[in-house]
C-alpha cells in the first residue's frame, strides 16, 4: 500500500512540475525536503533509500542522480545542511 501511495504522490508531483518551468535545482530541493522530512520522522536510511530507488526506477532521472549521492545527502541533511546547500554541493544547483 505504501509503495502505491508513494508512486501516486510522485506522479502528482511530477505532473504539477510538468506544468511549470522546473529546473533540476528546483526538483533537487523538492526531493531533498522530502528526504529531510523522512529523516525527521525517524525513517531508517534503508527506508529512505528504498524511496529514492523508487524515484529512480519510476523514471525520474534526478532520482538516479540522488541515489548516486545518497550517502552524502543523508550525512549532510543529518548534520543540518539545508536542501539548498546539499543541492549545490552535488552540483544540481549553482
From TrEMBL:
<dbReference type="Pfam" id="PF03489">
    <property type="entry name" value="SapB_2"/>
</dbReference>
<dbReference type="InterPro" id="IPR011001">
    <property type="entry name" value="Saposin-like"/>
</dbReference>
<feature type="domain" description="Saposin B-type">
    <location>
        <begin position="23"/>
        <end position="93"/>
    </location>
</feature>
<dbReference type="InterPro" id="IPR008138">
    <property type="entry name" value="SapB_2"/>
</dbReference>
<feature type="signal peptide">
    <location>
        <begin position="1"/>
        <end position="20"/>
    </location>
</feature>
<keyword id="KW-0732">Signal</keyword>
<dbReference type="InterPro" id="IPR008139">
    <property type="entry name" value="SaposinB_dom"/>
</dbReference>
<keyword id="KW-1015">Disulfide bond</keyword>
<protein>
    <recommendedName>
        <fullName>Saposin B-type domain-containing protein</fullName>
    </recommendedName>
</protein>
Amino acid at each position: 500500500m505504501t509503495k502505491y501511495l508513494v508512486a501516486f504522490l510522485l506522479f502528482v508531483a511530477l505532473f504539477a512540475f510538468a506544468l511549470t518551468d522546473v529546473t533540476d535545482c528546483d526538483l533537487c530541493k523538492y526531493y531533498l525536503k522530502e528526504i529531510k522530512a523522512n529523516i525527521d520522522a525517524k525513517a531508517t536510511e534503508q527506508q529512505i533509500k528504498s524511496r529514492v530507488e523508487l524515484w529512480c526506477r519510476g523514471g525520474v532521472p534526478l532520482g538516479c542522480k540522488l541515489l548516486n549521492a545518497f550517502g552524502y545527502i543523508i550525512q549532510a541533511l543529518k548534520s543540518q545542511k539545508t536542501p539548498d546547500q546539499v543541492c549545490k554541493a552535488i552540483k544540481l544547483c549553482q
